[in-house]
Amino acid sequence: MAKLTSELLRPVDPAHALDEAALLRYAAANVPGFPGPAPALALTQFGHGQSNPTYCIQASAPGGETRRYVLRKKPPGAILQSAHAVEREYQVLKALGAHTDVPVPKVYCLCTDASVIGTPFYIMEYLEGIIYPDNALPGVTPSKRRAIYFSTAKTLAAIHKVDVNAIGLQNFMFQVERWERQYLASTGEGKPARYQRMLDLARWLKEHVPEEDSSAGSGTGLVHGDYRADNLVFHPTEDRVIGVIDWELSTLGNQMCDVAYSCLPYIIDATPGERTSYGGFQHIGIPDGIPQLEEYLSVYCSFSARPWPAANWKFYIAFSLFRGASIYAGVYHRWTMGNASGGERAKFAGRVANTMVDCACDFINRENVLREQPSRGFQGSEAPWQEFGREQDGSTSTKDQGKFVPSEKVMQLRKKLIKFIEDHIYPMEGEFYKHAQSTSKWTIHPEEETLKALAKKEGLWNLFIPLDSAARARKLLFEGHPLVSPGSSNDLLLGVGLTNLEYGYLCEIMGRSVWAPQIFNCGAPDTGNMEVLLRYGTKEQQKQWLIPLLEGKIRSGFAMTEPQVASSDATNIECSISRQGDFYVINGRKWWTSGAMDPRCKILILMGKTDFSAPKHKQQSMILVDINTPGVQIKRPLLVFGFDDAPHGHAEIVFENVHVPVTNILLGEGRGFEIAQGRLGPGRLHHCMRLIGAAERGMDLMVERALSRTAFGKRIAQHGSFLSDLAKCRIELEQARLLVLEAADQLDRHGNKKARGILAMAKVAAPNMALKVLDMAMQVHGAAGLSSDTVLSHLWATARTLRLADGPDEVHLGTIAKLELQRARL
């Protein structure tokens, strides 16, 4: 399963305890911006990894900010010569961070004085992201697996493009003999069963060193040395690498050895554990979505501009297994000495080392290990690296467009939704409208809560929650919750584990009625706000606000748009969020804060500026505001073409000296744009999905009316002009549906940033299509279509709103055009 960085933390192993007071003194004096004065220090240890002990330092200033850092140190006790080179790691990270685009954490200081905490160490930036400890990526959707592997290959290519001379890393070394010596040193006095086979393998490798590796020629460059998925930190919401870690084995050498090492999951499962089989993907089967070995290599070769490695692939894989055996022999050696940092897994490292030796000896005796050239399926205009490259730029891919076949699971949910809406919501629409126009409009119709309970009972609750977010929340937040019991029928709060594409088929059905989304707890802005809290909220914020939102006990609002500035350009916003001691003080005016009129609305997510002097896109922050906080003044409900959307409503709100705790900030100061992009991608798409449903409702009502009404001597459905317009509406609706589904698919596979082009296309196309269809339906209904006797006018007003909400058409058209121009320059 994917793990957040914070999930890998555990109490410090007694064998790795250190002098925290000495560490605090050193960090305060040498780490720029370290909290103070007299900060409280909380030290935990990363349980992941088998090498240098790694710690999380959490420093909290009294009544002030809290910051986290990572400390890497050499292990205590006797260690192998040249192993655990934290000085090497620091040197590489510093050079890469200062001079390249390779994603690495920022390093702050290196301490070579062992008297401080017992061994040399360095302190670097803490990255909150996702690590995938298992190469098979269990619990990850197939499309996401593919994107993760391609991003892994692209990042490795970026490392291999580094000019080591330009960044001062030209004095590294690389040789087979080093790993042979390390293996021999690791075995100690007793010779393991594979000892002779290892020596034979070393001899074979020396005899088959590729020509380009015989000297420091064109094949020599920076090698990571341990490049694999669990040494990469991925962005919390996007399938891109934000940090390459564990550089202690980095060196200069033939970079194809790095590539081969990253391909070992196809050959062998080298994760230490108590089992008898260590077969790789080619033995046990490649998990759905993970690319074939050739495909992965093709992506790397394209981004690195390297030739296909078939000629020496046998050497590269054999050397990677040889090196891996040496490393794991060292891990096992440290375990026997009591100073291994990988916990219980380390005791199985010797077994892995032996298996790698056997695998390498078998591999060098195979006839064919890799095709001379990549197969035709990985060449030409639709090669995987070209598809991936276009997706990195937000461009669309023609691969599989239109081939959207929902699974049986989704079809069953879709049938249940349609039946629920037809049996329970359509019959109540008249009552809901009547209540919304009464003097009790700002109260909740009692039947709404009854229907919500029924929807929850039928498993049609929180369907919008993505699979990855549900998995994280289930583990971190809901353990022991009465409605969340993984694997049971009452696992209600976290949805059913759908991708955006799968949810698209269901969200469309909800869009057929303006009342339906909230019945299933899938209405805006709650869905976007819940997603923000799921992805970016602290555990305390989630417990206070996310759980009641997921339960449907409260609702929320999103306060961003301001009346005095053009808020389509969010850099214009003027609402201030100023830090004063333990509080942030908010001053400003917002409007079109949807949901704020609802009596159940208890929390607002507000976007304002914490630093007006910061770079343009670092001024904004998002913060949680309890709607009952003194100074929050709801001035009036706003009307949309005469509709006030009671009891939900859209409010104009004044924030006057509103004091909220500093703990209410989301993700940190200056992270507002980052959160907005994470929120708006799925949110915009949900609007588009619902618009497809609204247009379908319009088509149904239009056809029903045309078949039942007579004008000028025949049914409206018999008039040629109607038939032509009806056909055109169907064509445009189907085009928009496919565009929205393709956008959902790319959002699943590549994240918001990479899918931004097609998301913008969908956001422009869907409202305009819905407006045309609904306008035609209103026309066919005559005067009745303009009244509130049908849902058409309300659906039309909503669709017209969405040409502005979440970004006006002009902004999205600009995004599409810029991406097209960028692609033309490639």
TrEMBL record:
Reactions catalysed, semicolon-separated, are: a 2,3-saturated acyl-CoA + oxidized [electron-transfer flavoprotein] + H(+) = a (2E)-enoyl-CoA + reduced [electron-transfer flavoprotein]; docosanoyl-CoA + oxidized [electron-transfer flavoprotein] + H(+) = (2E)-docosenoyl-CoA + reduced [electron-transfer flavoprotein]; tetracosanoyl-CoA + oxidized [electron-transfer flavoprotein] + H(+) = (2E)-tetracosenoyl-CoA + reduced [electron-transfer flavoprotein]; eicosanoyl-CoA + oxidized [electron-transfer flavoprotein] + H(+) = (2E)-eicosenoyl-CoA + reduced [electron-transfer flavoprotein]
Classification via Pfam families: Acyl-CoA_dh_1, Acyl-CoA_dh_M, Acyl-CoA_dh_N, APH
Q: Which cofactor does it need?
A: FAD
Where mainly found? mitochondrion
Q: Which GO terms describe its biological process?
A: fatty acid beta-oxidation using acyl-CoA dehydrogenase
User: Which residue numbers delimit the Acyl-CoA dehydrogenase/oxidase N-terminal domain?
Assistant: 495-553
Enumerate the spans annotated as Acyl-CoA dehydrogenase/oxidase C-terminal domain.
Answer: 670-818
Pathway where this protein functions: Lipid metabolism; fatty acid beta-oxidation
Per UniProt, residues of the Acyl-CoA oxidase/dehydrogenase middle domain are: 557-658
Q: Which GO terms describe its molecular function?
A: acyl-CoA dehydrogenase activity; flavin adenine dinucleotide binding
Q: What is this protein called?
A: Acyl-CoA dehydrogenase family member 11
